[in-house]
Structures are given as structure tokens and as C-alpha cells.
Write a structure and sequence with these properties.
By secondary structure, this protein is an alpha/beta fold. The chain has one domain: 3-Layer(aba) Sandwich (Rossmann fold), CATH 3.40.50.720. Helix content is 47%, strand content 15%. It has a seven-stranded parallel sheet, with helices on both faces. Helix 4 (102-130) links the parallel strand 4 and strand 5 (133-138). The radius of gyration is 17 Å and the shape is globular. The N and C termini lie far apart (44 Å).
């Protein structure tokens, strides 16, 4: 008898990286639920992209703690478990700190960092009870290096990895791993919408000489979420074409 497929939830699941992650997890045999705001055109495009795969969609505002709890409980009830959680929801509200208002700060923190807490908090107990869980948090190279005009974004992404390391220590003995992935600049709608000269300047600074592909990020997420990756926890995987290198 075949083993029961692992169940995965991906916040920000209909975004550029999120869709690629959902596809990679589904192709690896996981039952996948994409969690995101219910934007009609984006959802329709997402459904076309994942057609034929075991991928569903559930509307969710990750800034709503109670809604995240209801979402997690619903997945556990409907699909039997929630084994893999990928926190990929993220937004930007770029401006220099001198011009940044409180709403811009709160919006980014609410999605990028509070969202990680809101979903992880509700998912982790059942993972620990089951003796298996994989949490993968999608951070950013700009959380490692900082970026002009992104004090809010860079702080949220750096904070995400602090969260990763602390939670990893709390749950390691229970078979639950927690890791983060820090992508560099990738071929997502957000980056491709930049002026061509801006993208060219970015690529010039990347040692491999190109933007990343969403599928390359998704491959790392799939690897970290595998049953066989149980000895990797509390780490940050940089996938940035050499843009930032460190120990």
C-alpha cells in the first residue's frame, strides 16, 4: 500500500515564487494547498498553471491570526494533516526611512513577519504530536545585506531567519525542522516590471550573470521539505547566484 501523501500549505501560493513552489511540491507527490488573497484574475491564472496537479486554493489573509487558525484546522480536518508549511507570502512598500510612514512599516511587518508567526503558531503543535513537520520560510538576500529604501522589508526578512533559528531549537527533538531560504533577484512579475536599465544593473552585480528562475527556488524548498532532510534545521539556504556569499 502506498504511503499517504504529505500535505503542504504554501502562503503567498499564487505569486511568482509561490506558484513554482506549489508545482514542485505537487510533482514530488505532496498534496498542496495554496493560501493567498482571493484576487480573481491571479487565481484564474494560478489554476491554469497547476492544472492536472494535486493543488488546491484557499483564500487567506495571513495577517489575520484567527483566520490562519481556522485555515490550518480546516486543512487538518479535510486532508488529515498539515505536514509541510511554506511561508512565502510577502509584500514591499519601498521608500527611505525618512519618508516611510507607520502604515508602510506595519503593512510589510504584518504580512512578511506576522504572517509567519500566525501560520506557524497554529501548525506546529500537530506537527510535534505527529513527530514530523517541515517549515520553510522564504526570506530574501536583502534580509542579509540590507537594501536602500527597504528598512521595513529588510528588517522583516532578517527577522524571519531569527524566528527560524529559534523555532528550530524548540521543535527539533520532535521531528520538526525549520529552515529559511533567501532568494536573490528572480524572474518574477515584480522584478520583471522594473525598468530594463535597473534589471541590467542588478544582473551586472550577480556573479552567474542572470536572474534566478522561480523553479530554482522551488527546488530548494522541495529539498528542505523532504522526509530525507530531517538532519537540516535552523539553516538559511542562499539561492542568489552569488550576489551575497558568506559562511
Amino acid at each position: 500500500m502506498a504511503a499517504t501523501p504529505r500535505v503542504a500549505a504554501v502562503s503567498g501560493g499564487i505569486g511568482g515564487l509561490g506558484t513554482a513552489i506549489c508545482i514542485a511540491l505537487a510533482k514530488a507527490g505532496r498534496r498542496v494547498v495554496a493560501l493567498d488573497l482571493d484576487r480573481q484574475a491571479a487565481v484564474a491564472g494560478f489554476r491554469r498553471a497547476v492544472e492536472g496537479l494535486d493543488v488546491g486554493f484557499q483564500p487567506l489573509d495571513v495577517t489575520d491570526f484567527d483566520a490562519c487558525g481556522a485555515c490550518v484546522r480546516g486543512i487538518q480536518s479535510d486532508l488529515g494533516s498539515l505536514d509541510i508549511l511554506v511561508n512565502a507570502a510577502g509584500i514591499t512598500r519601498d521608500t527611505t526611512l525618512r519618508k516611510m510612514d507607520k502604515l508602510q512599516w506595519d503593512a510589510v511587518m504584518g504580512v512578511n513577519l506576522d504572517g509567519v508567526f500566525n501560520l506557524s503558531r497554529h501548525a506546529v503543535d500537530a506537527m510535534m504530536t505527529a513527530g514530523f513537520g517541515r517549515i520553510v520560510n522564504i526570506s530574501s538576500v536583502n534580509g542579509q545585506t540590507g537594501q536602500f529604501g527597504q528598512t521595513n522589508y529588510s528588517a522583516s526578512k532578517a527577522g524571519m531567519h531569527g524566528f527560524t533559528m529559534a523555532l528550530a531549537r524548540e521543535v527539533a527533538r520532535k521531528g520538526v525542522t525549520v529552515n529559511s531560504v533567501s532568494p536573490g533577484y528572480c524572474e518574477t512579475p515584480l522584478v520583471l516590471a522594473m525598468p530594463e536599465e535597473t534589471r541590467a544593473s542588478i544582473v551586472q552585480g550577480v556573479p552567474v550573470g542572470r536572474l534566478g528562475r522561480p523553479e530554482e527556488i522551488a527546488r530548494v524548498v522541495e529539498f528542505l521539505s523532504a522526509d530525507e532532510s530531517g538532519f537540516i534545521t535552523g539553516t538559511n539556504m542562499a539561492v542568489n547566484g552569488g550576489l551575497f556569499m558568506s559562511f
